[in-house]
Specification:
480 residues, mainly alpha, 0% strand
Length: 480
Amino acid sequence: MSLMSREPSRRIEIAAAILVLAAAVAAYASSLSNGFVGDDHYLVENNPLLERGPGFSDLFLKPWGAEASGEYERRMNQGYYRPLAVALFAIEHRLWDGNPLGHHAVNVLLHAVTSLLVFWFARRFLGFKGALAASLLFALHAVHSEAVDAVYYRTTLLEGLLCIAALHVHGSTEPGPKGRLRGHILVMLLYILALFGKETAFPLPLYLVLYDLFIRRIRIAALDRTRYAGLALMAIGYVVLRGHVTSSGSIAYFAGVPVWSVMLTMSGVFALYLRLLVWPHPLCAFYEWSILPPVDDPLSPFALLGLAAVTGYLVLAAGAVVRKAPVLSFGLWLLPISLLPVLHIIPILNVAAERFLYMGSLGFCLLVGLGFDAIMERPGRALRYAAITILLAYLLVHAALTVRRNRAWADDESLYRATIQDHPRSLSSRLGLGRILLLRGKANEAIEQAKGAMAIAPDLEAPRQLEHAALEAVRNQERK
């Protein structure tokens, strides 16, 4: 029996769409009371560019974070180009007048709309039940909490929304020259907007190729070369513009690390990503050297597990192609292709980040929907009830983890404490928490964090400086 043989009524489809929207909003409703956290402070809350209102040159001829007050922040962001996010932040700054509630509400709305797009996109090749399962999982998946809870990760939400919208438009292009032309123009517009939102939208043309090869089952020789040539020209133009605006010299995670170590470390990161897609706990706001150091031993468990994960995944993905399983092939190949911009082919700051999975998680969600469809089409009421029970339990777990993570992102102190609880070797979290405690007059607690930081990095000066400042504060308190 075909997965598409039992078509629900239009009313049921609309009810399902509303359910997906409601699930996404409900999962992140508690984040609306959160404040600014992390890089929000200099990119959104205290950004002079937003205060005066950016002009054309500010938007398109300056890198991300160009007017940050700190030299480290400017250097950290001088390789990033995100004019769409800056424009939206500027508009919101005027609307909300510095109130974080409005910014968080926009993030939640963007995620909810993206989840709805996942439902409509999945309906093109999954049954109703599978598409609903995939979109609900996307809406509730706890690995998305980083992108939604931090205002400055709006860039990730824009990338995901616009790329999935482009996929949907590409898949629904009407037959005939006029329909193809309108669809092609709209996809090109969405592509450039996605690139202006975040650089990691670059692989979008490859997503479209995956769709044509696997879902539409078009042979490589028969692909619409004109369509992809247009996208390629836009990508080249974007690279030229971005190269003119941005500069090299930004902080790279693997600076001075040999290539073999980078490859083995990123293999282990890929295994981490697979685990986070299936079970997103514990999560981490910043995978730094003290948590995820570069591999120095090729035979370490982390390196071997990574190699096994990469090898096994590629074998599975290639096998899906050989078996001519369209949705399985599309879902499996979408993840590694979405990660291409963050695999340190070009050096970047972060070794890993949960937000990097926002687009790639679409593939995982589609595979869950595919499996759910297959079970629901099999005979046996007990099997179907078991599948529904397991799916609902899995969705509830994700919802609970997401709500828990919302609380962690409430403010800087909450995020530092949550990170230390799950990752005691987080050096930056101990230093950040220690500084906050010191400012709040809790010098003794700051000393504890300084000692914890020194145990992690005994040769680093920052923990000693924090301890010295905290001890001086204690002495001042005793004199009083």
